[in-house]
Each structure stands twice: as structure tokens, then as C-alpha cells.
Specification:
With 90 residues, this protein is mainly alpha-helical. Helix content is 71%, strand content 0%. The longest helix has 29 residues.
Length: 90
């Protein structure tokens, strides 16, 4: 039983060492550099929040979301007003 556990530990230990020495710039996938480029774009310090750094479409979606949120808050305020102020009986 002890030999099996040693073999498993040894296989993990040597595999990671071999994998670290085997990787070079020639073996890195092209997609890695594309992901790196996108990460650099979103991590740029330009004062914009992350959810607005994508494109103009992100800004449009943000503004629509804010407008709908304000309409909803206004509707809730109207509802609270109608429920809290008694209606005049004629």
C-alpha cells in the first residue's frame, strides 16, 4: 500500500517538472496571445469601469438599464404614494 502512494506522488512530482521544462515560446498556443491582448485592453487604467470598456454597445446597454431602473423606481414611488395617501370619497 505504501509503495502505491509513493508511486502516485512521484508521478505527479515528476510530471509537473517535465511539463515546466518542456514548454517554450514555440509551443504556446496562438489563442493565449489573443486572450492576453484582451486582458490588457480591459485592465488599462483609463478611468472607465470594466463593464463599459467593451464597445459602444456596452454604453447603450448600460444607459437602457439605468433608464429602466429609474422608470421602475418612479413606478414604485407612485405606487407607494397611491397606497399611502387616502383617496377622496365623492
Amino acid at each position: 500500500m505504501m509503495n502505491l502512494s509513493r508511486a502516485v506522488v512521484r508521478s505527479f512530482a515528476t510530471t509537473s517538472a517535465r511539463r515546466a521544462t518542456a514548454t517554450s515560446k514555440d509551443q504556446i498556443e496562438k489563442g493565449y496571445f489573443e486572450i492576453r491582448k484582451v486582458q490588457e485592453h480591459f485592465q488599462k487604467k483609463d478611468g472607465k469601469p470594466v463593464f463599459l470598456k467593451g464597445s459602444a454597445f456596452d454604453s447603450v446597454l448600460y444607459r437602457i438599464t439605468m433608464a429602466l431602473a429609474l422608470v421602475g423606481i418612479g413606478g414604485m414611488g407612485k405606487l407607494f404614494w397611491e397606497l399611502s395617501v387616502p383617496q377622496k370619497q365623492e
